[in-house]
C-alpha cells in the first residue's frame, strides 16, 4: 500500500535511490582518481576473484553488490521508520493506512452542511469517509431535554445537536460512543449526555463556546469542523397561520391537528455568526441543507443573518436534501414544494438541486408512520421548475423511513464531483 498513488512516498524513495547511485559514482571517482586508488584496485580484483567470466560477466558482480547495498539501505529506512512509529505509539501496520486516508481525504470536496438533529449527523458520518473538508453549521436553538436544562442553568447555547455532529465526525470510535452516552441515574446527571456536559464544561472554562472551538476539535479528534450557527443563546419563535405565536422549539410538536407554521424567527433576531462559519461558506464547493426537521433543524441556521447572506452570496451550488416523510405537527400536510418554498422564504435563494430518495418505502413502514401522522413526501403537484431541480438516488435505509448515511453521502459526493 506504500506504493499507492497520492500517498507521497514513491517520490522520496525514487529520490533516495537516485542520490544513492550518484553518491556511489562520486565515491568511485574519488577512490579511483585520488589517494585511495590502490584500495579501489584491490577491491575490484577481490570481486573479480569471486567468479569467472564464464559464469558471470565481471560487471555482473558490481551490479550484484549495488543491488545488495540498495536493499540494505532501504531496509535501514524501513527499520528506522518502524522504530520512530513505535516510539510515538503508532502501530507500523496501521501507519500506511492512516497516511493514505489523510492524504486522500485532504483533497476531497469542500462541503458545508447545514442543519441539526439525527439527519445531519447521519450525513456527516457518511461524508467523513470521502473528504476531510467538511464544515457542519449546526442549530443551537433547542430548548428541551438535556440541552434545555443546560441552557437554563448556564445561559449557553443548546449543545445537543453539536454533540451528535461531533460524535459523527470524531476519528475515535471510543470518544464517539462516550459523547452519546446518556446518564440513566444520578442526581443532576440523569438525562444528560456526556457530550453535552463536556461542551458545557469547555464553554464554562473558556468563557463561551466560540473561544473553545479549537480545544473541542483537538480533544475530540474531529475529521472536519463543527460550529454552532451562533454562540449567543436564542429562542425559536413560530408564527402560525391562525395568528398565534409559539415560543420554543420543544413546543412545535404540539401543533398536531392545529394551525400550520407560516414563518419562524429567532429571538433576539440579529445574532452574530462565527467568522469560521462565514469563511467556510465562502470557500465551499457545495452547500447542503439537511436532511433534518424543516423548521427546527434547517431553517434556524438560515435565520442567522450573516449565515443566510453568505449562502446567498456564495458561488457554490445549494443542495436541499428532502425529508422522506412529513413530521407530525411541524410539517403535517406540507408538500415537497411547500418545504422548498419555506427554505426559499427564509433563505432568499432557491436551491440549485433537491435530492430525493428513489427507493420505494415498504408498505408496512408507510403504515407505521401514517399511524403517527406522517406521510411520504412525493413530487405530486410539484411545479415544472422544482421537478427540473430534483435529483433521485437510492437513499433509504432498509426497513425504515430514514436516510442511509453511506448512500446519502455517496449521492452528495457524486453531485459534487460532477460540479467540480
Describe this entry's structure for a reader.
This protein has 420 residues and is of the alpha/beta class. The chain folds into two domains: 10-104, no CATH class; 108-419, CofD-like domains (Rossmann fold, 3-Layer(aba) Sandwich), CATH 3.40.50. It is 50% helix and 11% strand. It has 17 helices and ten strands. It has helices at residues 10-33, 37-48, 58-87, 92-105, 117-127, 145-154, 160-169, 173-179, 194-206, 209-220, 275-283, 294-302, 305-313, 336-347, 363-371, 384-389, 405-419; strands at residues 111-115, 134-138, 225-228, 235-240, 245-247, 261-267, 286-289, 318-321, 353-357, 390-393. Strand 4 (235-240) and strand 5 form a beta hairpin. The radius of gyration is 30 Å and the shape is elongated. The mean pLDDT is 87. This is Putative gluconeogenesis factor. Keywords: Cytoplasm, Membrane, Transmembrane, Transmembrane helix. InterPro entries: CofD (IPR002882), CofD-like_dom_sf (IPR038136), Gluconeogen_factor (IPR010119). It is found in: Cytoplasm.
Amino acid at each position: 500500500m506504500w506504493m499507492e498513488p497520492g500517498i507521497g512516498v514513491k517520490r522520496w524513495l525514487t529520490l533516495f535511490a537516485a542520490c544513492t547511485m550518484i553518491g556511489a559514482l562520486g565515491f568511485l571517482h574519488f577512490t579511483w582518481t585520488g589517494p585511495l586508488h590502490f584500495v579501489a584496485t584491490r577491491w575490484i580484483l577481490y570481486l573479480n576473484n569471486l567468479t569467472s567470466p564464464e559464469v558471470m560477466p565481471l560487471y555482473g558482480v558490481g551490479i550484484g553488490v549495488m543491488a545488495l547495498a540498495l536493499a540494505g539501505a532501504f531496509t535501514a529506512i524501513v527499520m528506522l521508520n518502524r522504530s520512530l512509529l513505535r516510539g510515538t505509539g503508532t502501530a507500523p501496520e496501521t501507519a500506511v493506512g492512516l497516511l493514505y486516508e489523510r492524504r486522500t481525504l485532504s483533497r476531497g470536496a469542500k462541503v458545508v452542511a447545514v442543519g441539526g438533529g439525527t439527519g445531519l449527523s447521519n450525513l456527516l458520518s457518511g461524508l467523513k469517509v470521502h473528504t476531510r473538508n467538511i464544515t457542519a453549521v449546526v442549530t443551537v436553538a433547542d430548548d428541551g431535554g438535556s440541552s434545555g436544562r443546560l441552557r437554563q442553568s448556564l445561559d449557553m447555547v443548546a449543545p445537543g445537536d453539536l454533540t451528535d455532529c461531533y460524535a459523527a465526525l470524531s476519528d475515535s470510535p471510543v470518544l464517539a460512543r462516550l459523547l452519546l452516552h446518556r446518564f440513566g441515574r444520578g442526581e443532576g446527571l440523569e438525562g444528560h449526555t456526556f457530550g453535552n456536559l463536556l461542551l458545557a464544561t469547555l464553554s464554562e472554562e473558556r468563557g463561551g463556546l466560540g473561544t473553545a472551538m479549537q480545544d473541542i476539535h483537538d480533544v475530540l479528534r474531529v475529521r472536519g469542523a463543527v460550529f454552532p450557527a451562533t454562540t449567543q443563546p436564542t429562542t425559536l419563535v413560530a408564527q402560525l397561520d391562525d395568528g398565534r405565536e409559539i415560543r420554543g422549539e420543544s413546543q412545535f410538536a404540539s401543533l398536531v391537528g392545529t394551525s400550520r407554521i407560516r414563518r419562524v424567527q429567532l429571538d433576539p433576531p440579529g445574532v452574530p455568526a462565527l467568522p469560521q462559519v462565514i469563511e467556510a461558506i465562502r470557500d465551499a464547493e457545495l452547500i447542503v441543507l439537511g436532511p433534518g426537521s424543516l423548521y427546527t433543524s434547517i431553517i434556524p441556521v438560515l435565520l442567522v443573518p450573516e449565515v443566510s447572506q453568505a449562502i446567498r452570496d456564495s458561488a457554490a451550488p445549494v443542495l436541499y436534501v428532502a425529508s422522506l416523510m412529513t413530521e407530525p405537527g411541524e410539517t403535517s400536510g406540507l408538500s415537497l414544494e411547500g418545504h422548498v418554498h419555506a427554505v426559499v422564504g427564509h433563505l432568499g435563494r432557491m436551491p440549485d438541486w433537491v435530492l430525493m430518495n428513489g427507493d420505494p418505502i415498504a408498505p408496512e413502514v408507510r403504515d407505521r408512520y401514517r399511524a403517527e401522522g406522517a406521510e411520504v413526501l412525493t413530487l405530486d403537484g410539484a411545479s415544472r421548475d422544482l421537478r427540473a431541480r430534483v435529483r433521485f438516488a437510492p437513499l433509504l435505509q432498509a426497513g425504515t423511513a430514514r436516510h442511509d448515511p453511506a448512500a446519502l453521502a455517496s449521492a452528495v459526493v457524486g453531485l459534487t464531483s460532477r460540479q467540480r
